Amino acid sequence: MMMIGELNASHTGVSGGPADAERSPAQTRYPGFDLVADxxxxxxVGHIYKTGxxxxxxxxxxxxxxxxxxxxxxxxxxxxxWKYFTISAGRKFHxxxxxxxxxxxxxxATIEPIAAAAFGNxxxxxxxxxxxxxxxxxSGGEFGYLHIRAMDAPSLRQFELDLxxxxxxxxxxxxxxxxxxxxxxxxxxxxxxxxxxxFSVGRDSDLKVWRPQNFYGPMVVMQNERSxxxxxxxxxxxxxxGLGQTVGVPTMGAVIATGSYTLLDGSSIRTPGSGVWxxxxxxxENYGVPPDVYVDNSPADFAAGRDVQIEKAVEVLKAELAAxxx
Length: 326
Known about the structure:
This protein is α/β, with parallel strands linked by helices. It is built from eight helices and 14 strands. Strands 2, 3, 4, 5, 6 and 7 form a six-stranded antiparallel sheet that branches. A five-stranded parallel sheet has the order 8-9-10-11-14, sandwiched between helices. A three-stranded antiparallel sheet has the order 1-13-12, with no helix packed on it. The model has no long low-confidence stretch (mean pLDDT 91).
């Protein structure tokens, strides 16, 4: 790893290796709701994630309820509940729930928890819904919002669906913050530019006329320091094609193509294979695509649940719509 680090290149490193048969990592499981400490000494139910394991009427769990016990163990705010979410021996969690901070009148709610990946999907869906609501509120329902989670085939399909759903909006915010990359920047830009120079037809398929999917109103692309790899090539191309402005902070600066090779002990090593340059000659590795409009979210903004970058994106689009037409 130290030798590979001398290359100072992204997408590189050594991973894996012989499995340790004696130890397996502990897995934390999630009940589908957040826990919030209450002055009464018990935790209360915070946000309940839509379609999650706690989102069922028969459980009778609602936001604000007190969690009195977990698996026959009293649960106080002095206890670290994450420990119990990790070492629980059973397949299900057995919560004692009440509308007041007491055992009297409490009922049991049995939940089959989910693993980290599934819970991450629920958290992501909430994050996107929250930002869509922000844009809707700030724009009076006139602007559309979509988020590109990754640069992969499922995200491309979701992008097409979201673009169609926002077709009637006056302006569109395309958010690709926290996008780790992939390889669909050309497909995205082809859709947004409304141009396609070629397509393939199977031998036994009918000839299909391609219908443009582009958006015709003003657009902005949002980026941040966690927009990496292909999620840096996309905003760079968006700007170069004159499709709109980018809002946020410079991207990660990690744009390089690598190859992976398996070693004798089962580990793998990634090494650089080719680089990516802009049409102007900028090497995108260690570059960081600069935004047209710089705005950052401070820790205080995060703590307050405020997204200043979203607010600025709406402001930019409002100014563009208000500007005299050339």
